[in-house]
Amino acid sequence: MKTIYKIVPRELWQDARKTGVFQGAPIDRKDGYIHFSTGAQAVETARLHFSGEADLLLVAVDASVFGETLKWEPSRGGDLFPHLFADLPLDAVLWEKPLPLGSDGAHVFPAEFQEA
Q: I need a labelling partner for 95 at 20 to 30 A (CA). Which of 22, 39, 64, 74 fits?
């Protein structure tokens, strides 16, 4: 199983819990796919795109359930990033954990998070 990660505002994720499906953040809907990161990419994604934002969640997702709707496409630095060209059913979620800000202003990743 390959785990991919989504950083999402808690309020937006609570809406998804009500329906059982996450349709994406505004940037995802604008781009036409849900942005994910690998473990190796998630810390930098948090730093670049969520700097200073509190009340976020880190959502771990089983990438193996998506088939052809999950595409690996070049993005930042030419790295291949996972992009889901479908809604995210919450039954694909492995876990969700708070992603708080530390005293240095960087996000503190949960113990369950694996960068590899």
A: 74
H helix runs in the chain, sequence order: 10-19, 26-31, 39-49
Measure the CA–CA gap between 8 and 27, rounded to whole angstroms. 11
Name beta bridge partners: 6.
59
With H, G, I as helix, E, B as strand and everything else as coil, classify residue 83.
strand
pLDDT digit string, tens, across residues 12-48 = 999 999 999 999 999 999 999 999 999 999 999 999 9
In angstroms, the Cα distances linking 15 to 12, 22, 34, 61, 86 are 5, 8, 16, 18, 17
What are the sequence ranges of the domains in the chain? 3-98
CATH number of 3-98: 3.20.170.20
Return the pLDDT at 110: 96
For 60-74, write each residue's pLDDT tens digit: 999 999 999 999 999
Q: What global pTM score does this model have?
A: 0.95
